[in-house]
Each structure stands twice: as C-alpha cells, then as structure tokens.
Amino acid sequence: MDHPKISEDYLESASFFDIFNEEDYFLHDKTVEGEFVEKQIINHPIIEKTIFEHVTFSECDFDKLELTDVIFKGCDLSNCLLTKASLYRVEFQNCKMIGVNLDKSYFNNVLFKNCLMDLGNINQANLKETSFESSSLKDMSFNENKLKQVFFDDCDLNKMTILSTKLKGMDFSSCRFETIDIEESGIKGLKVNAEQATFLARYFLGIKVSY
C-alpha cells in the first residue's frame, strides 16, 4: 500500500478555515493543529498534502470531499457526513470516527489505524488497497461494497453488518466478533479462525459444535 506523499519540511502552519480563502475550497501543503471545526457545510472541498493533528470536526457535512496525500492524527470526525468522498493515499491514525458516514465513497490506498469507528457507515463504496488495523468497527454498516485488496487486522467487528458484499480473499482470522450479520453468499473465500467458523456454521446451518 502506498503511503501519503508528504514532505513535512515544505508544509506551512495554517487553520482549516483558510479553505474559505479559495473560491473552490482548496487547502494544500499545510499542517493544522488543535482546532475545533463545528457544523461546517462545504460541497466538494479539496485537500492535498496536509496533516491534521488533534483537530475536532464536529457534525460537519463535507459532501464529495476529495483528499489526496492527507494524514489525520488523533482527530475526531464523529458524526461527520463525508458521503461520495474520494480518498487517495490517506491515513487516519488514532482517530475517533463514531457514526462517520462514508457512503458511496472511493478509497485508494487508505489506512485506518487504531481508530474508533463504531456505528459508522461505509455502504455502496469502492475500496481498493485499504487497511483497517487495530480498530473498532462495532455496529458498522458495511453493505453493497466492492472490495479489492482490503485488509482487516486485529479489529473488533462485533455486530457489524456486511450484506451484498463479496468477501473473497478477505481475512478475518485476527479479528473479533461475537455476532455478525453476514450473508452466506458473501463468505465464499473468506478466511476465518476456528471460533469464527463455529459461529458461521451455527449461523447458517444450525450446526452445534461440541468440544
């Protein structure tokens, strides 16, 4: 997976609100730290080669957000509407993203690491070379997605809903869930551990496994 192409030596300290200085809502080559951005509504904001650290985006609506070579560190994007977003070489590290909505978005080389994404929505999306690492995806809606080289490592998938999505080539064996809403037609080629296999056998076939 390709990482964001950012040279921190060339970044300037800025405010997120500088995006309003450009007619096309464009922010680039910046570092933004410790800001609180509340209930902002921007259609098609474009952000490139920028690092956000400890920035809170509270209930913002950024429809058709376009991110290229962007890193979020310790940020809060809970309950933000980021529908129809395009994400290219983007990393979310140690971010709180409860209830975030990324429906109908395109992901290419995207990393979610140590993120809290419970109750989030990623539906009708196209994900390519995307990794979820050591993150919580409990109660997430993850339906009607197209996946290519998507990885889940050490994630909590409990009560996740995964419908109308082919999981061939995916590996859930290092992840955890007590229950998950999933379709039998979608699990062909999915790698799971023994405990998960027992759940799926019981879920789909009513098989009881004794030890």
TrEMBL record:
UniProt name for this protein: Quinolone resistance protein
Its ancestry begins with: Bacteria, Bacillati, Bacillota, Bacilli, Lactobacillales
